[in-house]
Amino acid sequence: MTIATAVSEPLHIGPLSKTFTLPSGSVHALRDIELDIPAGRFISIVGTSGCGKSTLLRIIAGLETQYDGQVTLGGAGISGPSLDRGVIFQEHRLLPWLTVEANVAFGLKNLPKDEIRQLVAEHLDLVGLTSFAKAYPHQLSGGMAQRVAIARALVNKPKLLLLDEPFGALDAMTKIQMQQEILRIWEVEQTTMILVTHDIDEAIYLGDEVVVMSARPGTVKMVLPVPLPRPRDRTSPGFVALRKRIYHEFFAELEQPFAYKI
Amino acid sequence: MTSQAAMTIEQPREGEPLNPFIKAFRMALSKLRDGAVYVALSVLIVAVWQYLSAIGFLKPMLLPSPLKIGDTLLALTLSGELFRHLGISFLRVLEGFAIAALVGLPLGIAIGLSRVVDQSTDLLLQLTKPIPPIAWIPLSILWFGIGESGKVFIIFLGGVFPILINTVDGIRQTDQRYVELARVLEVTRGRFILKVVLPGALPAIMTGIRVGLMVSWICVVAAELIAATSGLGYLIMDGRQLMQTDQVLVGMLTIGAMGKLLDVVLRAAESRLVTWKTTFQGK
């Protein structure tokens, strides 16, 4: 690989709280989140829908700027979106009127044409879509489109890549392929990755650590290191044990109301 | 449409290789069938019309027979009269429509992009939009006399609003998710407009241009009906005054045929420009 790796920087969160003000009152989306993410790590954040995990990601991305507390990347506070933080959304968000290569180049600017072409070609190669450079998004499958989105996010050499349920819309088989793909890319690029998901398997398969969040208000329930070597076997005893623990966390929460009744 | 029809009539059995010769023949057959479906209703109506004329049910003064209209069409075509009037009308439309596009597109883009421009022009546009271009004819005669500019003005009024409204709509339909994407990628406003907003608005803009040209084409005839010595509208009025109903109908049919032709050309242009659109085509 000829791609020069971007210098990753540690992310520090916290204590961070976020309140949404609605006409019916205020909702605590996040409360006292504290996380330290060293450079180059792969962190999975798992939680039920509505636990504020996407809100947390949007705050790190700089898309959400109203919050209490602090978020710093390499010591500098985050006040808005920036190219040093790439985002992969659940939907690929490719521009349908641009070719694959033009979509990848969409975020590049102030560079000589040759350099743009070179960067785009390298990143299409990285995601294995060189032969689709001239194709349009509607000619791609869901998995391919998401790979183009990954190339588009990486082409700016972000220090941090934020993935917001990026494979949630894909079928089970494609999803597993894409998980292997993102791991491979992470190993090449050494970019810090933060993945938000509701898929416990995905969280364990990918993360160095799994952050388990609880809902309303969104808090960090526990941070679980994943000491398994990669590539991970989803059916290995270690994997299953971790899955069991995380399932138990969610399950315990659901059981509580019944416990009160008895 | 063609391929869909081909699939419904002949379904080659799985695994049975088709002779390419038979395949081509079947394709041609299904195309022929599509063409037949397309013209069947019109042909039927014309046939009934001709029959009713032949038995004397329709009076030639009120509605001449299709054959009579065909004769007149041929005569007017051969004498060059028809093309002269058609050319004059078409030229007027081109002038008025070009001005409408030159005003409507930039103004629509400005209104779509800027809330200030939108708010300051809204009342004025909302008040003038419902006034039919034909209602402007008396005023345009007072302002421009019965010359060319008055007619171009009416055509302009007819074309400008569809272009304007569709352009604004197209721009306002920009997906919020792309706005977020542009923020994340720190794309400048200029680049965002150029690469996201305008291409996204293109289908709506093309619709505006198509509808605008159609309305302009309708307006030229209206303008020529009132005060003109040439053009298709004049041809129709001249026919009425001379009690030549066949000439009236030739004029009307030419307007219809020309309108259809313009639509075909613009639709072709649209599908060349908007290659990414994959929408429902009707069943």
Report on this structure.
The complex is a heterodimer of chains A (262) and B (283). In chain A, the strands form two sheets. Chain A has a six-stranded mixed sheet with strand order 6-7-8-3-9-10, with helices on both faces. Chain A has seven helices and ten strands. The mean pLDDT of chain A is 87. Chain A has a domain of 178 residues: P-loop containing nucleotide triphosphate hydrolases (Rossmann fold, 3-Layer(aba) Sandwich), CATH 3.40.50.300. The N and C termini of chain A lie far apart (61 Å). By secondary structure, chain A is an alpha/beta fold. Helices cover 35% and strands 24% of the residues of chain A. Chain B is an all-alpha fold. Chain B has two domains: 57 residues, no CATH class; 195 residues, MetI-like (MetI-like fold). Chain B contains eleven helices and no strands. The longest helix of chain B is centred in the C-terminal third of the chain and has 38 residues. The radius of gyration of chain B is 24 Å and the shape is flat. Chain B starts with a helix and ends in a 10-residue tail after the last helix. The N terminus of chain B is likely disordered. The chains are: A alpha/beta (262), B mainly alpha (283). At the A-B interface, strand 6 of A face helix 8 and helix 9 of B.
Approximately what portion of the residues of chain A adopt beta-strand conformation? 15-25%
Name the structural class of chain A.
Answer: alpha/beta
Order of helices and strands of chain B: HHHHHHHHHHH
Q: List unreliable stretches of 5+ residues of chain A.
A: none
* Strand line-up in the sheet with most strands of chain A: 6-7-8-3-9-10
Give the proportion of residues in helices of chain A: 25-40%
Provide the gyration radius of chain A in Å. 19 Å
Report the count of strand segments of chain A: 10
Strand content of chain B: under 5%
Overall 3D form of chain A:
globular
For the biggest sheet of chain B, the summary is: none
Helix content of chain B: over 70%
Name the shape of chain B in a single word: flat
- CA(first)-CA(last) distance of chain B: 9 Å
Please give the oligomerization state of what you see: heterodimer
